[in-house]
Specification:
By secondary structure, the protein is α/β, with parallel strands linked by helices. It has two domains: 30 residues, no CATH class; 131 residues, Alpha-Beta Complex (Protein-Tyrosine Phosphatase, Chain A), CATH 3.90.190. 29% of the residues lie in helices and 19% in strands. A hairpin with a 2-residue loop joins strand 1 and strand 2. The radius of gyration is 16 Å and the shape is globular.
């Protein structure tokens, strides 16, 4: 059973909201928040295709073959430990404390895999922050898009996707440096 949570936005109180529920907080119906209790991870695999690309975002269960019937040529794991399907392991912390070279190496790996033929799964524990940051940074760099637009593409596939502020900052710095990545 998914835990319920409640929260306030301004003067409005939202009681007993389901995780991943989009909350419409304006009269016009504009979605302002996707609710995720801290530390919550779905009980099974989350695999979301990013538009029509051969690129997928997932949670840790997506990198375990017994949880689903999909296959991927490449699996980039941003988690502490490798998973059964991991082909490339670039562990990141979901917050401050990432060494710059570790973050840059994770994005460089994502970009290299994105350019190759074959399907690519990029995952972290919940499929919310680290994986969305790596994918949005990759799309911004490889498709010459602003980070905000690239993140919007990720959020179309996974509305709860939201980089931790420290990872968001690292992505902006990475893109400002305009690094070249070998194929």
């Amino acid at each position: 059973m998914k835990p319920l949570c409640s929260f306030n936005i301004g003067e409005t109180f939202y009681p007993e909201v389901e995780p991943d529920e989009t909350v419409n907080c304006h009269e016009e119906g504009e979605a302002l928040a996707v609710v995720r209790p801290k530390g919550y991870v779905e009980d099974g695999p989350v695999v979301r295709r990013i538009g029509g690309r051969n690129l997928y975002l997932g949670n840790t269960f997506a990198a375990h073959p017994e949880g689903h019937d999909r296959s991927f040529e490449f699996v980039l794991s941003a988690t502490d430990e490798e998973c059964p399907l991991t082909t490339h392991h670039r562990p990141l912390i979901d917050g401050r404390g990432n060494d710059w070279s570790a973050f840059a190496a994770a994005v460089d790996t994502a970009r290299t895999l994105y350019r190759r033929d074959g399907s690519v799964l990029i995952h972290c524990k919940a499929g919310i922050s680290r994986s969305s940051t790596l994918i949005a940074t990759t799309l911004a760099a490889e498709e010459n898009r602003p980070f905000r637009d690239a993140l919007g593409i990720v959020q179309e596939a996974r509305p709860a996707a939201m980089p931790n502020p420290a990872l968001h900052e690292a992505a902006i710095v990475y893109l400002a440096a305009e690094p070249q990545v070998d194929s």
